[in-house]
UniProtKB/TrEMBL annotation:
Keywords: Membrane, Transmembrane, Transmembrane helix
Protein name: ABC-2 type transport system permease protein
Membrane-spanning parts: 34-57
Amino acid sequence: MELVGLGLDRGLPLGTTGMRARCDLDTAARAGQAFTAAIWLVQIAVWGLATLALAGYTNLVRKPG
């Protein structure tokens, strides 16, 4: 259950579960730094895709023609 809480805490930037205080990545180690960078890249990609999907559903981007 702690892993689920940590995943939610890291994945949802608007809400926190408080799990980071108990369970966090070791960013002093090389593997922890690489994993943290990978998490950031995935979050950027997900937010970008969510933005594009929202723009597509709301017709904010018009088709030329």
